[in-house]
Amino acid sequence: MDIALELAKTARRVTISHHMERLTFPFPSNLSQQSDVSMLTETGAKFTNGSEESFDVVLYCTGFRYNFPFLGADCGIEVQENHVQPLYKHCININHPTMAFIGLPFYVCAAQMMDLQVRFCLAYLTGRQHLPPAHEMLDDAAQEFEDRLQRGYKKRHAHMMGPEQGRYYDDLAKTAQIETIPLVMTKLHNESSQRFVDDLIHFREDVFRIVDDEYFEYVKE
């Protein structure tokens, strides 16, 4: 959506195709929305609503793919549909628990989450805490993944947090007996993410003030 807005400043016409609910904030007059692409044609694209348009340029914004070509097979890490496994709490390699992956979860407070993950891993690498047996870590990972499937997530969403990110932070903190991320940071991230969808054009003008570890408030001009 950011790219579409920037292109609309120069291009004669821009169409953004997405699979979310239809966005309702006011777009520039030369920027329109379409449903998912059903197929590309010689001159453009057909969409799932039956319409067809021609384009000079098609730009794919399909997200990221996890890939670790520098890891040998003997480390036991596999990636299936963007699900990196087997990992304990989305970061510790259960097969070789001195190996950790920092930053896999997405739709998160990235810097704060990575700091928390590092502190989580260090609790075990320094010997302050002891990891459960491998079979218990595997069971924990399998149960967490199954819970996601039951809530309607796909395998490619295995590391997606979003509005539920606070549960992950608190689980890391409770498991390793370390300090979690203040709730206000999670609330701010979730609020900003929603504002991005509700008013992409103006959401960066928002100003917040942190009141305490739990609450924030809008700062009025």
Automatic annotation (TrEMBL):
Enzyme Commission designation: 1.-.-.-
Signal peptide start and end residues: none
Enzyme class per UniProt: oxidoreductase
Membrane spanning stretches: none
Pfam family, one: FMO-like
Keywords in alphabetical order: FAD, Flavoprotein, Monooxygenase, Oxidoreductase
InterPro entries cross-referenced by the UniProt entry: FAD/NAD-bd_sf, Flavin_mOase-like, FMO-like
Highest rank taxon of the organism: Eukaryota
Record keyword Cytoplasm present: no
Cofactor requirement: FAD
Recorded GO MF terms: flavin adenine dinucleotide binding; N,N-dimethylaniline monooxygenase activity; NADP binding
Family (UniProt): Belongs to the FMO family.
Name the record gives this protein: Flavin-containing monooxygenase
The species this protein was found in: Anopheles merus (Mosquito)
Lineage: Eukaryota, Metazoa, Ecdysozoa, Arthropoda, Hexapoda
